[in-house]
Amino acid sequence: MEEIIKEKKDTFQKNLTEVRTELEKELKKNKIKFVEIDYRIKHRYSLYKKLLKYDIDIDKIYDIVALRVVVNTVEECYRVLGLIHSIWNPLPGRIKDYIAVPKPNGYRSIHTTIFTGLGRVAEIQIKTKEMHAEAAYGIAAHFAYKEQKDKKVKNDKNKFKWVEELKELKYSPDDPKKFIDHLKMDFFNDRIFVFTPKGDVIDLPEESCPLDFAYSIHSDIGNHTFGAKVNGKMVQLFTKLKNGDIVEIVTKKDSKPSSKWLEFVKTSIAKKHIRSYLEKNSLLARLKSFGRS
Questions:
Q1: How many CB atoms lie under 10 A from the CB of residue 32?
Q2: What span, in angstroms and rounded, lies between the C-alpha atoms of 36 and 19?
Q3: Helix (H, G, I), strand (E, B) or coil at 12
Q4: What's the confidence (pLDDT) of residue 238?
Q5: DSSP code of 74?
Q6: In the predicted structure, residue 152 carries a pLDDT above the cut 50
């Protein structure tokens, strides 16, 4: 790992130095104020996970060293993004707007990967001072920043939605390993963003299926799922969803969960509701049988 970082770090930094010089010049020319432009080196564990994902092919990882642009407002984040794309061409599929759709842990930023010329690429991350503080120091930074600004932040509820979801896992001290396994799956895996037919964004772990989507909407929808449409076409309930899919759930009153569903769902919320339904109805069936005997 150390050798990989050492080998690529200097190449990436040299490339980004040229990008940084050009970007600073253009930002000043267009009168866009920025707090700082700096580099960040990917943490070793994050790099290790990406290497596994890309079959240990280091050339497929563009963000070993990334350029970080910090500005004052969200509006300036998007102005900087537009300016960057007017100078360099972006890689298709490599623009990630974590401001519009934050990660489950609350992380917010805009990431874009650009062609810098001569066959080279670079990742640029754009965020506000508040977002940068939260990324560096976690939840505590949010409250420190909030206190410093002395104003109420309207989207606190959405920002800490992941904490509410964490409570849903209902930690049991008798089975800490199971809790950690669920935690890794729901909060530390790579994520995908899919849409309801009305355009609402649903955030799920990679390799989730329509059943995970259904239970993320409501347990009653999950428990009565009959079929699913993805991008307007009927698919199997165990089809793996991809970024940007539009998912519609077809329900029927007499549809009910099957133990087979547990083999395919990825989210802890879906597993919890399926098991709960199966246990409840198994007990009910036994009681009815007992009553008839």
A1: 16
A2: 14
A3: helix
A4: 96
A5: H
A6: no
Q: Which residue in this structure is represented by tokens 């959405």?
A: 158
CA distance linking residue 293 with residue 286, whole number of Å:
11
Give the position of tokens 């909060």: 187
The mean pLDDT of 254-260, rounded to a whole number, is 94
Q: Which domains does the chain have, with CATH numbers?
A: 2-149 (3.30.460.10), 160-292 (3.10.20.30)
Structure-token pair, residue 150: 């002395």
Spatial CB neighbours of 189, under 8 Å, sequence gap ≥ 6: 205, 206
Backbone dihedral angles phi then psi of residue 47, each to the nearest 5 degrees: -65, -40
Which of 229, 282, 222 has the alpha carbon at shortest distance from 255?
Answer: 222
How far apart CA 202 and CA 193 sit, in angstroms, is: 6
- Judged by DSSP in three states, 5 sits in helix
CA distance 19 to 62: 14
- 239 class by beta-carbon count within 10 Å (0-12 exposed, 13-18 middle, 19+ buried): middle
